[in-house]
Amino acid sequence: MNKLLKKVALLAVEQYPNNKEKAQKLRKFSAHWLRHMSASMQDKMGVSFKHIRANLRHENDETTRRYVHALDEERHNDMQKLTMFDRT
After folding, report:
1. d(Cα 6, Cα 54) in Å, to the nearest integer?
2. C-alpha to C-alpha distance for 23 and 58, rounded to whole angstroms
């Protein structure tokens, strides 16, 4: 399965000859990458951590935390919008 995904990713790289960043990401594409993306998307959609952990079949919270970290910076930036005082 992973070999097939790699082939698809390499075909997709050809569609972005002028986008080195996208091509680099696609070259890293794998079944495991999809697993990380799924966990991040579940987190972004508000699925509870315990359910993400269960969906990934992890016994340990720390293992799951490695998968849902992708949105930590985005979450942090959003939280910076909160202030105690009105800036107007």
Report:
1. 27
2. 31
